[in-house]
């Protein structure tokens, strides 16, 4: 706290009170490092406002004293977007005390929540109202809605419901000068000029602090069927999703692709997971169908689609879950991948997207280049086939030392991102840029796009105090 003027500290105390300030090193620790310990910074103090008005007062105070602000939610990101720099002069603005569900309007199918509400709490509140909030991802028990919005989170149900841009009707945002923009409107049609909420969704706190949102709700799901399918190739997965989509339409809510290496890591490190098949296969998909009708014939549809794929040689084996326990066991194989890979030592994570039709060619060509240039690396490829999003992660060769593997990070990244660009893809599909991909964005984004982004940033945040060093 000594790096900030004493009068600034007194101003913070007058805004949020003693309960809203964390200044001792021990309690600050968890706010200064991401959950993987991949990024670590220092901060002058952690401020935890309890209302939008307190956020606005804090932002105005930081403007007055030219103190940079790092907004933070559940701190579950993968690109270091919510971690301060090493200067020790920035203030982390944690929104976790702002955790109220303000309104559930079942008739309008909307929910208004503060930014610090945990995603799982939103899911539960929707279910209590007989509705569904469909965003679902591995960190849903600890990530916050504000963080989901800041990174435009996707998850496993994007195929049917879209990402956070598609799930949000309105926002409340504290602007960099401390003004409060109240855009909390639960309207599905509002054609009155620029749709300002889309400036802030995905901006990672660089344009303002999202303090509340109006979220879309959907009818509750009353029928679900889940299958685990073994495939000979990634190309077979792309053909299979075409078959299932043609039969099932928007009943298809999940279609998750996993390489054998991904599954092997889970089987080795996640307690309670077992292989559904006696033999191993190169690729797998987890398919989920859902419907609002309680007795929808989902099993029949799924078996029809898998049967057609079997006849065409696209499927090697398949099992349809017969109970909730079996459904959970199959999803555990998918959701355990990220955790399991951490047990194998350092890993290089790449969250990319390419057109769905290009997924097989991307995997084949990129796998080959990496194995030629970096012998022994283990490629952990998995993701959401329906929207072209692959988590294309690299683990070190067995027996190699961590330092030499990390020294190859830049070279490996360029192989993957060059391939992504060659297929007209994106270097960040759902994790954002944060600090991890800021430099790469300068190489792989259109210069005009970057210039337009800088213009918007300069217009809204001329003093560059909102999460500096992130995105741009």
TrEMBL record:
GO terms for biological process: respiratory electron transport chain. One of its GO terms (molecular function) is FAD binding. InterPro entries: FAD-bd_oxidored_4_C, FAD-bd_PCMH, FAD-bd_PCMH-like_sf, FAD-bd_PCMH_sub1, FAD-bd_PCMH_sub2, FAD-linked_Oxase-like_C, FAD-oxidored/transferase_4, Oxid_FAD_bind_N. Residues 39-220 form the FAD-binding PCMH-type domain. It holds the Pfam family FAD-oxidase_C. Keywords: FAD, Flavoprotein. Its cofactor is FAD. PROSITE patterns: FAD_PCMH. SUPFAM superfamilies: FAD-binding/transporter-associated domain-like, FAD-linked oxidases, C-terminal domain. Belongs to the FAD-binding oxidoreductase/transferase type 4 family. This is FAD/FMN-containing dehydrogenase. It comes from Stutzerimonas xanthomarina DSM 18231.
